[in-house]
Amino acid sequence: MIVWHFFRIFLHLTAGLLTCAVIFPFSSDARRDELVRRWSVKLLAICTVDVTFKDKSGGAVNASAMIVSNHVSWLDIFVINTLHPCHFVAKSDIRNWPLLGWLCEKAGTIFLVRGRQRDVRRIYEGLVHQIEAGKRIAFFPEGTTAAQGNLLAFHANLFEAAIEAHVPVQPFVVRYLDAQGQFHAAADFIGDMTFAESMRIILLAPRMTAELVRLPAIPTEGAHRRDVAKLARESIVKELGI
Question: Where in the numbering of this chain does the Phospholipid/glycerol acyltransferase domain appear (predicted)?
Answer without folding.
Answer: 65-177
